[in-house]
Amino acid sequence: MRILLIEDNADVRANLAEQLERAGHEVDVALDGRSGLLLALAGDHDVLVLDLGLPRLDGLEVCRKLRAAKGAGPLVLMLTARDTLEDKLEGFAAGADDYLVKPFEGAELLVRLAALARRSTRQDPGVLVVEDLRYDTGTLRVERAGRALALNRVGLRILRELMAASPRVVTRQQLEQVLWDGFSPEGSVLRSHIFALRKAIDLEGLAPLVHTVRGIGYRLAREDQG
Fold first, then answer.
1. Is the pTM of this model over 0.70?
2. Class of domain 2-121
3. Which of the residues in the chain have pLDDT under 50?
């Protein structure tokens, strides 16, 4: 994969770049948010490994501006010491696809990147429709009652699984297998993605479609549809 590493700490940047290159990835680096955003906009990277605490432009703004300019764009793996649920939700809302809390082992970073790569190469041709929700898996366009919705790549993958199974329940284990090949280091990560998906899809004035089946998983359907 071609990876853009945006990290201001020189020691961390050098260590991560070495590990990524040793694993066979092509790595570009940026030392601050502004230069990183310019490189991301001009390049064709597969993944951004993006630190949040950056000078000149923080990681959240980099992610927001990138998504606004390039739509789906490259996958974004955020690196941060901020580990609260609110921090993670903010990162996912900005357009992140995955979230890795510092400190972490290099092996975990490589596992996360491999899972992102497998996810991005899967093709799901066709159009999925549930009630007034429509997802064109070829163009990655999602509409609810005719209104276009903005979802990141993880949200799109979860949505594809839920819509394809609707009205059946998709277990947490099934989603974790699809998203991370069964590797889910933090229980709150999937919940954070579901929260963001529900917020995007269940618009005010429309019937809720995303439901939690406590202790089991999630389903996408009208509440009265069993």
1. no
2. alpha beta
3. 121-124
